[in-house]
Structure formats: C-alpha cells, structure tokens
Amino acid sequence: MNDEVAQSFDELADLMQIAGGDRFKIVAYRRVGDEVRALARDLSTLDDEDLLALRGVGRATASKIREVMKTGTMAKLEEARAAVPPGIREMTALPGLGPKTALLLHHQLGVSNLAELDKAIKEQRLRAIKGLGRKTEENLAAALRRFKGKQERIPIDVALSVAESLLEELRGSDLVSEVAYCGSLRRGKETIGDLDLLATGPDPAAIMGLFTGLPGVAGVPASGSTKSTVRTREGLQVDLRVVAPDEFGSALQYFSGSKEHNVRIREIAVKQGYKLSEYGLFRVSDNLKVAGASEEDVYGALGMTTPPAPMRENRGEVELALKGELPELIQLADILGDLHSHTRYSDGSTTVREMAMTAMGLGRRYLAITDHLDAWVKSHSPDTILLQAGEIAAVNEEFGDKITVLQGVEVDIGPEGTLALPDSILDSVDLVIASIHRRYGLDPEAMTRRVVKAMQHPSVNIFGHPTGRWLGSREAAEFDLTEVFAAAKDNGVVMEINSNPARLDLKDDHIRLAREFGLKFSINTDSHNPGHLSRMRLGVGMAQRGWVTKPETINALPLDGLRHVLTKE
Ligand code: DGT
Ligand code: CA
Ligand code: CA
Ligand code: ZN
Fold this sequence. Notes:
By secondary structure, this protein is α/β, with parallel strands linked by helices.
C-alpha cells in the first residue's frame, strides 16, 4: 500500500513538472512520496492524526492519501495524466530521461514520443540543445537501444511470473471481481509478445487507476477508462481491458486467440446465423445475445465443446470440438515423477538428498538423478557409480515411503552415434537418457545416422532435448525427424519434452509428429538446482500444445508401471 501511494505522488509530481505546474507543490508531492516510502508502518494502520503528523502532510494531502488507498488513484492524478500526452509519459519511462528533459525535448524539438525521440537522436539534433550536449545524446541512444531490445518477445517463464504477480495484486483489490490472463501466455507459447489481461469490476476507471499505478509498472504508454497499456520493469508490455461480467467469456475467448482459431470460430458462427465478437455471441435475425458470460457458453451455443487454450491454433481442434471428440490433455496434476535432474556428481548445484526433498515437496513420487557421469568415470573410476548408488540408497531409506530416487545417467551421443559410457554402466542403472551436447552442426544425413544409431543401443530409454534448440541462440538441429521417430518407435525409446524455458524441446509441431508415430513422452525438468524442479508446468504446457494425453506420458505412470517401461519389456 505504501509503495502504491508513494508512486501516485511521484507520478503526480512528474506529470505536473512536465505540464509546468506549481513548483512548490511539485516539491511538496515529491516529499510526500519519499516520506510515505520511508514509513516503517503500513499506511492502512495509521489514523488521521498519525497521517497529519507525517512531515509535509496537511489536510488536503491526507485526504489525497486516503483517496489513493481507497480507489487506487486520485482525481488530481487522473487530471494530470489527461493533461500530458501519453507519448511524453512513455518517454519518461526511459532510464535517464526525467520529466525536465522530456519537456525540454518537447518544447525545443517537438519530440512527443519514443519514436520521435529515436529519430531526433539519429539526426543528432539533441547535442545542439543547450543543457544536453553530445554525452546526453549518446546516453539516451544507448538507453533507447536497451529499451527496444527489451520489447522483443519475452520467454514464457518471465511472462508467467510477471502475469502472476500482476494478477495477485489485482485479485487483492476489492475493485476487481474477476481477472485472467489470455493471449499467447494462456495458450502456452514459448515466447510472449505482449501480455493480455482481462478484468471485470463495478468501476472500470478505478481498476485502470489501480493497474497503471502498480509497483511493477515502469511506464504507461496508453491509459483510458476501459483499456490501458503499461510497460513493466522487465520490459514487458501489458494490456488490461475491463469488460462487463456478461462479456467476460466472449472477451476471454476473443483475446485468448489465436487469431487463426478465432477466424475459424467466427466463420462457424456466421454459418449458424450468429455474429461473434468480444462482446458476445449474437443472433443475427434479432440481435439477441445468446452467450457471453463464459467461454463454455459461447462454444456450447455453437454446438462445440471448449478446446483447452493450448490447442487453439486452428490445427484441427475446431473439427474435433464440433464432434465433441477433443482429447483429454495431460495436466500438471497427472505428473507423478521427474526423470531428468542433476546433482554435484555433474553440473548440478546440490546433493541427491536436497533434490529429493524439494521434489517430494512438489508432490513427486519419484525422481531420477541423471548426472553426466562420463567425466567422473574417466577422471576417477567406475566406482563413482557405486558411490552415487550408495548415496541414493541412503536417501531412499530415509524417504522411501514418500519418494523413490532412481539412478540414471544422461549420456552424450558422440558424432558417430556411439555413447560416451561403457555398456557395463549403462546396463547397471535404472534409466538412460541419451542426448546430444556437442557438434550439432553435422550435415542432416550424418545427424540422422548418428541419432538413429544411438536409438538402437539397447540401454537407451529417453532421447533428451531431442533437437537441441536453445531459444534466442541456437536453432533446432537439422535431421530427418520421421526417420528418427521411426527408429525410436522400433527401439522403445521415449521422447523427452524438456521443461527448461530456453529449450522447451520437443516443441509442439514435433510432438504432434512424434505422436503420429505412436511414441511416448517424458516431461522432464532437467533440473540443475532444486528451484528448477518446479518448471515442470512449462513442459506440461508444451505437451498440451502438442495434444499429449496422460496415457502417452510415462512419468504419469505409477512407479511399477514406469519400471516396466524402462526395462523395455
Ligand atoms: P503475442 O502477443 O504476439 O505473443 O500473441 P497473442 O496471441 O497474445 O496476440 P495479441 O496480443 O496480438 O492479441 C491477443 C489475442 O487477441 C489474439 O491471440 C487474438 C485476438 N486478436 C488480436 N487481434 C486480432 C485480429 O485482428 N483478429 C482476430 N480474430 N483476433 C485478434
Ligand atoms: Ca499477447
Ligand atoms: Ca496484446
Ligand atoms: Zn540434463
């Protein structure tokens, strides 16, 4: 609460400064901001007398503080927001560009948004202004480059945690009756362009005030009475729309996308004599609204079951929904264990016991430790495997009724398709993941031969992070997926869906192809520390985008069923 109030006063002071308001008031508001921020107690615990005792707080200011606490904004702030062009406010979100400079640029160069600022910098027009100079121009150019870089697509894990903290703030307010995220995040895409939030509540303008003033907000490119756009500290752009309760479902449907899915659904609506928009499903003949409050109502009125959001890419889900034959997708709650993790025996951060305790806390019934043991075995001795087996046995002794730790290895597939550990070791462990970690760039034929050969090794259970893609830095390796999937099927090798947000490998299209071959999947976290163990949901999201069901997921099996799969009959 204190932060929110302090920020409102900071923003008010910034805006008044841009607009050329009373200097004494501006200084006074800044002081109130500082005072409130420095307060040890939460504002909500202060009575009027306490408030008035704060330095620089008189009756008028005290009532402004109360106003922000009650509504999330204040009339004076809204007035100031309306008086300053949104582009100028956006400019002040740029590090190193305060209201004074923004105003100077506006008056001297006619620059009134970031795009115009970019142009002015490129034309070297800033350095000519008295009080700015070449150095400031260069600094702002650098800040702008960083800022633009941040506007690129954001990894899903970052977007998800931003969305969750925004949702928590909004849910915590009496102003908000219902709030949800939609767009590509709800569909579980691996990267997110911008975040789309949807809310309902009796006073939309007050929700907007609350939203644009949230602590994580670094800039407000646009704000209106039912739609605002903010930029968070992480550089993520977030749209919030407030709709009426009887539009929440149709708006959720619309803004969840994908666009391609929506186009199909709207065609179906038209064929049936309806018109579908974010405001609801309307009968064309008399404009009667037939659905809108929930997504199920909308799809139901069109004679369809509701496709889970990750399926909504117009890849055949519409036809299945019309027939009522949508698959039951794997859910996070179905996952019983995790089959890929690392400890100090290779590049993990901690011990078998620590990893097991965290996995147990997440409700996992089994955890495979799959260290890269080739280096150990080379530099120490094959006894390493026994040493680790002993450690695992002790942990199983301690926690055995709650979680079972399996001993596995993640073995490197060499350029020729041979495995980097002796057969005696591969034979002795519970499970073998074979992965490529080096030499991704072989020509596609050589890559295919390499992978197929590895699949044929009788000890290999799982093909780890199959294509080796690393989002933003390494493309998927090129090989013939159909040949590899066929070989995996012949040899009982399971495909990994790796939950590392930089990998998410296999990806949706490849998963769907693998499913056509009848392959099974293991959704793994590839954890290198205990914190990684909770990224399972990212892998489950990717599995859902590939339409994976529970029977296709080996780590949804109880332990004895899993062991059966691992022994390959
Ligand atoms: P992103 O933000 O690039 O990761 O992807 P989305 O899917 O979140 O796309 P976004 O934010 O542009 O729009 C959110 C949803 O709103 C989108 O999935 C479908 C809907 N939408 C937006 N523009 C259009 C449009 O022109 N036509 C239709 N049918 N739907 C749209
Ligand atoms: Ca979006
Ligand atoms: Ca959007
Ligand atoms: Zn690994």
